[in-house]
Amino acid sequence: MANNRIIKRTIFGMAFAIGLFTAVIIPAIYFLTAYNGLSNHLQSLAERQAILVSEFLYTQGELWRFNLNSLSGILTHGQPPLERRNQLRRILDTDGNVIVATDVKLEAPVLTRTGKIGNGDRVLGHVEFSESMDGIWTATGYAIFLGITTGLLIFLTLSALPIHALNGALEQLEREIAEKHHTQDMLRHAQRLESLGVLASGIAHNLNNLLLPILALTQMTLKALPAESVEYKRLEKVIQAALNAKDLVTRITALSRQNASKTEAVSVSEIVDNATELSKSILLPSIAFTKSSEGDAGKALVDAGQIETILLNIIGNAADAVDPKTGKINVSLSAIDADETLAKTVPNMHTGAYAKITISDNGHGMDPQTLDHVFDPFFTTKAVGKGTGLGLSTAYGVLRQYDGAIHVTSRPGEGTTFEIYLPLITTDSRSDGLAIQAKQPSAAG
Amino acid sequence: MAHILIIDDEEMVRFTLREILESANHDVTEADDGIRANKIFETNIFDLVITDIVMPDKEGLETIREFKKLRPDIPIIAISGGGRFRTDAYLKFAKELGADRTLNKPFTDEDLLALVESCLAGH
After folding, report:
1. Which of B12, B19, B81 faces A205 most closely, judged by CB atoms?
2. pLDDT for A438 beyond 50
3. How far does chain B reach from its first CA to its final CA, in angstroms?
4. What per-residue confidence (pLDDT) applies to A85?
5. How far apart are the CA of A381 and the nearest CA of chain B, in angstroms?
6. Distance (Å, rounded) from C-alpha A286 to C-alpha A82?
């Protein structure tokens, strides 16, 4: 009996052990293995994404810095390009708290800094996040990301700050972005004018070839005709038209610095004096025309005639823009020392000594669209036949020829101000004539 | 009367030059680029060469240099309507390479004939 009991207990124990193992241990092991596997998988996914972001931010920091959409794409989908921007993802802070939930709009991230820490490289940026209330998104905070690379390992850290904590830093960042955009705009504008200049030189070459037979053969034919004949008078008109076209080509070539000029050291004050004196004879007496200058501005290495023509042109434009009865035009001259800020603001400008000629009027002004095209060849707001659209584009080309610059500010109804900058001959450059010459457009090639 | 070689890739320009020069009783031979001009120049005697500067295949500056090597005494007039660089730059190079006179396009028949006569007279 006792043996039977022992056998029964043993069987019961074994059955219990097998049951326990089957019902609890195996599922528990299975569960733990699966959990670990899933966890590892999620972790590797997160790491991969972090590595991707870090690599992008690190290797293409400057590129992505202002390419907000692309960076946003990396964060939202793990890889560019960004096609489904409205899809959202979660971002966790360093403690694992959700700081950007799936129902929160992810704004464009901004990389703020790249640099080296010891042997590693780091990237720092932020993501703006917002909350939706009845469809209206309000910015509530920022996720800061910091990526550090140490050899093969790349870590990405995310943390969050409320919006007010970063206000100052972001304002600074916004200023940097605006400045960068402004520089890019200036560069684009300069490139556009440069390419138009190249185009103009090609057109000029072809037009000169076409004008040669028109002008020369017509003149030869003219000689064979009696001066009183109708044909003679008609061909005279052809020659006049060809000469006008030749003049137009000469003006176009000034855009691409093709024009021959008599460059010499001349007093900028004298140029301004001559231009203003000439202007008085063409302006209506009712327009208040004033001139102010702060002493002798110095000398510049230019063709005085070309600069006078530019000034006359701008003063003429001002006269067209102002009210004939209440119009005011002022021309002023001063010597300035251009600093970094000015050099960044005015296209083609560098730091150094310049003569600054300012022509301002109280005319109807220009809107931003007009202002953007004001130096484009053949762009004119004047009536057909009243303006060629070459005056300011020629001014731009000529001033570039002398390493000078031109800048315009205007608002509708508030008048227009043109600033013309001519590099002054300094004592250093005066003692080295070759250096001055070297600054002129090279004829090589 | 002189034998003049004119080199220009534009047929209209060559025609115009021929008309002007023949009106002054000169003999004219044409070439439309530097390569053909070289072959013609090696087998003919010319009193004067008028060449364009900007041409495809072989441009005028090289032609001027080669002609001056072959015949240092040959007078050459370089003509140009400009190109990537300013017209006077091309013509300045042409002078440095040996061109005796230069002329900007477009010009009149009188402009060209005055230069031709001056070159032929050895001035």
Report:
1. B81
2. no
3. 17
4. 35
5. 29
6. 61
Cα(first)–Cα(last) distance of chain A, in Å?
Answer: 119
Residues recorded for chain A:
445
Which residue of A211, A212, A262 is the best one to mutate when testing the B interface, meaning the one whose CB has the most B CBs within 10 A? A212
Preferred mutation among B105, B109, B116 to probe A, highest tally of A CBs within 10 A: B105
Minimum Cα–Cα distance from B90: chain A residue? A443
Interface predicted TM-score (ipTM) of this complex, two decimals: 0.81
Tokens 């003919």 sit on residue: B44
Q: How far apart are CA A52 and CA A45, in angstroms?
A: 11
* Residues in a beta bridge with A288: A328
Residue carrying the six token digits 């022992």? A6
List Cβ neighbours of A347 (8 Å cut-off, separation of 6 or more): A186, A189, A190, A405, A407
Its pTM surpasses 0.90: no
C-alpha span between A94 and A155 (Å, rounded): 12
Q: What are the angstrom distances between the C-alpha of A268 and each of A29, A304, A331, A423, B53? A: 91, 8, 13, 10, 37
Summarised one tens digit per residue, pLDDT across range A3-59 is 777 777 778 777 877 777 777 777 777 777 776 666 555 555 545 555 555 454 444
Distance CA A317, CA A338 (A): 27
Using alpha carbons, select from A241, A442, A225 the residue that is nearest to residue B106. Answer: A241
**Contact between residue B93 and residue B64 where contact means Cβ atoms under 8 Å apart:** no
Residue A270 to residue A304: CA distance in whole angstroms: 9
Selecting from B85, B106, B107 the residue whose C-beta is nearest the C-beta of A443 gives B85
What pLDDT score was predicted for residue A442?
Answer: 30
Report which of B45, B44, B10, B5 is spatially closest to residue B28, judged by C-alpha positions: B5
How many angstroms away from the CA of A378 is the closest CA of chain B? 20
For an interface test with B, give the residue of A209, A219, A222, A246 to mutate (most B CBs within 10 A): A209
- B85 and A445 Cβ atoms separated by less than 8 Å: yes
Q: Which residues of B touch A (CB under 8 A)?
A: 10, 12-13, 15-16, 19-20, 23, 54, 81-89, 92-93, 104-110, 112
Which of A212, A259, A445 comes nearest B107 by C-beta? A212
> pLDDT tens for residues A11-23?
877 787 777 777 7
Q: Chain A partners of B87 at a C-beta cutoff of 8 Å?
A: 208, 253, 258, 260
Chain B neighbors of A202, CB-CB under 8 A: 83-84
Q: Which tokens in the block code for residue A20?
A: 């326990």
In whole angstroms, give the CA distance from residue B65 to residue B95: 10
Which residue did the predictor score with more confidence, A21 or A85?
A: A21
Closest-CA distance of chain B to residue A301, Å: 19
Residue A208: its chain B contacts at CB < 8 A? Answer: 81-82, 87, 104-106
Distance from CA of B111 to the nearest CA of A (A): 9
A284-301 pLDDT per residue, tens: 888 898 988 777 788 998
Q: How far is Cα A233 from Cα A130, in angstroms, rounded to an integer?
A: 78
Would you call A435 exposed, middle or buried from its count of C-beta atoms within 10 A (0-12, 13-18, 19+)? exposed
Minimal CA separation from B106 to chain A, in Å: 4
